[in-house]
Amino acid sequence: MYNLSMPVTIRRLLGISELALRPVVGDETGAETVELLDAPLEWVYSSNLVDPMRFLPAGQMLLTDGAQFGVEGFDYDQYVARLRDGGLVGMGLGTGLTWAEPPEGLVDACRRRGLPLVEVPYHVPFLAVIRKADDLLDNEHQQHIQWGLDAQRAISRAAMRSNRLGDLLQELAKQLNCGVAIFDSSGQLMGSARQRPLPHSQLQELTDAMERLTRSGTRSAARISADGAEFIVQTIGAPPKLSGMLVLSGVSRLDGVQLDVVESVLALTGITLEFNRTINRQQHVLRDGVIEIAASGSIALANRLAERLWNEALPAGERTVIALNDTTTALVDALDRMQRDCMIFWGLRDGRATIVSPAENLDAVLDICLREHVGAGISQLSTNLPLSRLIQQARRVVADADPGAVVRYDDLSDAGWPTLLRGSMLEVVAAQLLAPLDQRHASEGAELRRTLRVWLEENGQAEAAAARLDVHRHTVRNRVARAASLLDLDLDTFEARTKVWLALSAADDPNDLSAAAGEAQR
């Protein structure tokens, strides 16, 4: 691993004998000054401006000959405060030109503000200090690049030595000297290295953040603060279907070279996770096959297969079946998590999913469906009904459900035959059978339809129908006879009455008929 403990610092410059720099305000001033003496140096810059921080970024060392201090009443404290506020890590004063020695006001201000101050002797030009710093920075940069190349080679060798994801993570953790963990797109931990178990609060915050990144569907990285700890999270895989997340802990930031090392790991882990995803897809199809065996009535065989393949069994006791006509990546991952926890048994084929769930886990499955806007058909909850019957119920319900709707078999069965008939091919047959009535004058057709419906509901009793319609019983008989003639049906037979009732149930809304009849009377 490249040793990052020897960056270019003011302390390193003080240790170079040819520069002969003398510390004026240093370690004795306190911890704040010590920290700045050891802070990584970005560059060395010379300026005699009263406010040089307008042109200097943070992390610099300022060299000055102090010409600006010659003004009467110069405010040293304000000057040093500006340097500290701008992120300067220290300053060097050249003596022997304007000042024989550092002015007391400057020294006192640096001590109060904790800013390192060094003396640059007359015989050492500022350019020599700048060049030495540049040489050190360039050497550090070259070493860092070389470390990056060596690290990538070490990671590649680790990948070739073993197909275990853990060996790859161990090498990355060694190179970056940090904790590393890999999660798949469902949030399941796939492997880790140098990563201590996280407290529940940290794990929850981290999981929530990873879920947000996964749902975004874009390749991205984020710095996450979770309960006082810092993490770097990087997505794995190509959008829109991300394969997982790489999480680094114990590292403050990554530079370009370190990011290149991480990218090499992302590429290798992406291949591994995508391979795992392919295996999971095959598992989904295999599980769907087990459910199909159960749907055919061979429950014992289905359970034997589930036990041999996964040491599992289809849920027994009070259970239900949920059928889905569509899925999303997040939904599949969430259902896989529930399956790993033995909460459900589910399979997937051609985008259609079938889920067998204990009664107590139904709400959790529905929460996932609603969150992903995926429609679902739900069978009855039952302990005694055969699983094959429940599967048929769920699939029949979802087949006629609107996109994104959650429909229960119980709700449809409670709604009665008219609701179940409406929307099927019976509407076409009904329209054809009732066409002779519709070809009459609108008011007459509506009147005949309403009379037929009420007459059939009263089991063909003209007197009871007349009371409901508020007309004479002979009027009812005449209308029924008229309708029978137009329809060319013998309404004294059960078969004909059944046809007409089914047609009216499929084609008519009773409320619409009442309104139409009211219009006819007016």
Structure keywords:
522 residues; alpha/beta; Udp-n-acetylmuramoylalanyl-d-glutamate--2,6- Diaminopimelate Ligase, Chain: A, domain 1; Beta-Lactamase; Alpha-Beta Plaits; 4 domains; five-stranded mixed β-sheet; five-stranded antiparallel β-sheet; 21 helices; 52% helix; 15% strand; elongated; disordered C terminus
Account of the 3D structure:
- With 522 residues, the chain is an alpha/beta fold.
- It has four domains: 10-135, HprK N-terminal domain-like (Udp-n-acetylmuramoylalanyl-d-glutamate--2,6- Diaminopimelate Ligase, Chain: A, domain 1, 3-Layer(aba) Sandwich), CATH 3.40.1390.20; 162-274, 2-Layer Sandwich (Beta-Lactamase), CATH 3.30.450.40; 315-414, Reverse transcriptase/Diguanylate cyclase domain (Alpha-Beta Plaits, 2-Layer Sandwich); 426-521, no CATH class.
- The chain is 52% helix and 15% strand.
- The chain contains 21 helices and 15 strands.
- The chain has helices at residues 10-14, 31-37, 76-85, 104-113, 126-161, 165-176, 200-216, 256-295, 299-310, 329-340, 362-371, 387-399, 409-414, 417-421, 426-433, 435-438, 442-457, 462-469, 473-487, 494-507, 510-521; strands at 22-25, 43-46, 60-64, 90-94, 117-120, 179-184, 189-193, 221-226, 229-236, 244-249, 319-324, 345-349, 352-358, 376-378, 406-408.
- A five-stranded mixed β-sheet has the order 1-5-4-3-2.
- A hairpin with a 2-residue loop joins strand 12 (345-349) and strand 13 (352-358).
- Helix 17 packs across helix 21 (510-521).
- It starts with 9 loop residues before the first helix and ends with a helix.
